Amino acid sequence: MIYRIILVFLLSINLLKYSSAQTDSTQLKNTEEKKRFSERMESFKTNKPLQASLLSLAVPGGGQVYNKQYWKLPIFYGALGSIAFTFDIFNKKYQKYKDGLIEHQNYIAALGTDSAFFPVLFPPETEENLLTVSKDKFRRNRDLSGLIFLAVYALNIIDATVYAHLSDFDVSDDLSIKFSPEIMPLYAVKNKNTVGLCITLKF
Fold first, then answer.
1. Got the DSSP string for 12-69?
2. How many CB atoms lie within 10 A of CB 79?
3. How confident is the model at residue 92 (pLDDT cuts 50, 70, 90)?
4. Residue 159 and residue 72 in one domain
5. pLDDT, tens digit (0-9, with 9 covering 90-100), for 151-201
6. Average pLDDT over residues 63-69
7. For residue 177, is it within any domain?
8. Which helix (H) or strand (E) holds 181?
């Protein structure tokens, strides 16, 4: 009987040790994960180009505000607003000519039948070829406006990223040049020296 009690006691101690060791390893893992997360956050905080890029990606001009280049905001917003306005105009024209072409085709098909109607968007004598050409032209212009909008948006991100990269470089005008005499050995003649001019450029 006493052997059983001792055996149960020893097993209980081993189980307690195992559970405490498992708890310690879990806590250690959590501590290491927290440390890695903290290091990543610190790296992100000190990575100015990355922050500027993400801000410009989220909001046009966000990176420029982060870089304190507020004067660029009217340029980017003016360009993006103008392109968006142009895109909307071309898109409306495209939709109008597309609907007019469909209406004209239906009108031609309905001539001489009981379902004949009078076109609303364009006069009946309008040529189908003219509607097709105009529709394709406004579609191309709309698509081109969209591509230009994306290009300016990308330029906004690139500009913020590049400036954030260059902001840490020393671009001051502290340039100086110094002239001083110096005695230099003559390697062709043993134990002979000559006087020269040393030019030191600091930048």
1. HHHHHHHHHHHHHHHHHHHHHHHHHHHHHHHHHHH-HHHHHHHHHHHSTTHHHHHTT-
2. 18
3. very high
4. yes
5. 999 999 999 999 888 876 655 555 566 667 776 676 656 666 666 666 665
6. 90
7. no
8. strand 176-185
* CA atoms of 101 and 104, how far apart (whole Å): 5
Per the model's pLDDT, the better-predicted residue between 84 and 7 turns out to be 84
Q: Dig out the tokens for 99 from the structure.
A: 């609907």
Of 71, 81, 48, the closest CA to residue 153 belongs to 81
Beta bridge partners of 197: 181
- Residue 8 CA: distances (Å) to CA of 3, 11, 20, 21: 9, 5, 18, 20
Examine the domain organization and report whether 63 and 27 are in the same domain. Answer: no
**In the chain, how many domains are there?**
2
φ, ψ (nearest 5 deg) of residue 176 = -145, 150
Token look-up 């470089």 returns 169
Contacts of range 12-20, beta carbons closer than 8 Å, 24 or more positions apart: none
- Distance between CA atoms of residues 114 and 125, nearest Å: 20
Regarding whether 105 and 38 lie in a shared domain, the answer is no
